Amino acid sequence: MIRRAYKFRMYPTAEQEEKLRQCGGNARWLWNYFLRINEEEYPKNKKFIFAHDLMKLLPDLKKEYEFLSLSWSQSLQQVAWHFDRALKDFLNPELKREFPTAKKKSKERDSFTIPQKFRIEKKYVYIPKVGEVAWVKHRGIKGKVKHITVKQDGDQWYCSVNVEIKTQNTKPVDTENIIGIDVGLKTFATHSDGEIVENQKVMKRFEHRLKKAQRRLSKRKKDGSNRRKQRIRVSRLYRKIRNIRRDFQHKSTCSTIAKCDGVCLETLNIKGMMSNHTLSKAVADCGWYEYKRQLRYKSEWQGKICVEIDRFAPSSKCCSRCGWKNDDLRLSDRLFVCSECGLEIDRDMNAALNIRCWGLKQYRGTNGNSRLGMTRGCRASAQCLSMSQEKERSGLS
Q1: Can you give the pTM of this predicted structure?
Q2: Three-state helix/strand/coil letters over the chain
Q3: Angstrom distance (rounded) from CA 201 to CA 195
Q4: Are 249 and 169 in contact (CB under 8 A)?
Q5: Of 87, 129, 149, 204, whose CB has the highest number of CB atoms within 10 Å?
């Protein structure tokens, strides 16, 4: 059983938008309240308050704070369940999650979840305490509907319908059709089969417009109507950048999963890369984490393989033909030259071939990390690439 979501845009009236904003604000306030009482409880009794005990507080809270009654009761209960999950993820040492933080008050980023009593129609969705809100249901919904989540994104409202689908994919996996993927800054992704995905550099394309809009926002009077309008313009630019990047990632991951039976990825220390002030902006613009996340869950949906090699595996420094390691390789060296076998190959392609070989070893359960053994597909790819590069240098191709 897998979970997926269908996202539709809603078009609420002014009255409905005020109610939606109230429901989102109540969910944010309740989250911060649960966080505050847990921060006060743990130093005293050395224990946290979880979902069931938090939900017992709701009747008294609704009497004390009457604005909570404007929200659907089950959407308030969902806040307790969401906080409970965040707290348990923090206590799980394997996940390495941070302690839940307070949600900042904002007029553009609120959301709330409704598990029951909603109704989905073609032209509208019925939301308790709000009414029938018009939306554009641009495609059909497959699977059993579990809940809906209403989210505000600047001056737009969206409804995500979460469904549960049973997958029946028993197709055998062909290990020869598994590819390795090396991500980078010059090229977004390099596949071991020779395909190269160019870097879109979305933020760089909109950087000038974004700077201009943010400069105007900084000069507007605080709490003024012009500042509110300019803040919406800035949020629209950010939404445009986010949608372009997300569309590119979805198209790229879908085509990758469709053409192969599995992918091998490298484990990246993205947080450590972001600490480098010269590369942080370019790394953030790539969106590697979201790209890898989509590859993971889409391969799971299709019943295919997704393997991540060790973070410290020297995929760029090792020769994909013989396994020789070049410890003097620099970031500016775009061509890998092997001193033992004489292989000359593009740095990213060499890393993609190594990632594939290392991932296949990990998938098959074999050991031996000193030299990277090559499968028939890797060896053929490396030979073809080295021959084509030799022809290009000699002027024959």
Answers
A1: 0.84
A2: CEEEEEEEEEECCHHHHHHHHHHHHHHHHHHHHHHHHHHHHHHHHCCCCCHHHHHHCHHHHHHHCHHHHHCCHHHHHHHHHHHHHHHHHHHCCCCCCCCCCCCCCCCCCCEEEECCCCEECCCEEEECCCEEEEECCCCCCCCEEEEEEEEEECCEEEEEEEEEECCCCCCCCCHHHEEEEEECCCEEEEECCCCEEECCCHHHHHHHHHHHHHHHHHHCCCCCHHHHHHHHHHHHHHHHHHHHHHHHHHHHHHHHHHHCCEEEEECCCHHHHHCCCCCHHHHHHHCHHHHHHHHHHHHHHCCCEEEEECCCCCCCCECCCCCCECCCCCCCCCEEECCCCCCEEEHHHHHHHHHHHHHHHHHHCCCCCCCCCCCHHHHHHHHHHHHHHHHHHHCCC
A3: 19
A4: no
A5: 87
Mean pLDDT along residues 27-47: 95
CB 6 within 8 A of CB 141: yes
Q: What is the mean pLDDT of residues 60-78?
A: 96
Per-residue burial over 268-295, b = 16 or more CB atoms within 10 Å of its CB, e = otherwise: eeeeebeeeeeeeebbebbbbeebbebb
Residue range 41-55: average pLDDT?
Answer: 94
- Cβ atoms 141, 8 nearer than 8 A: no
pLDDT reported for residue 391: 38
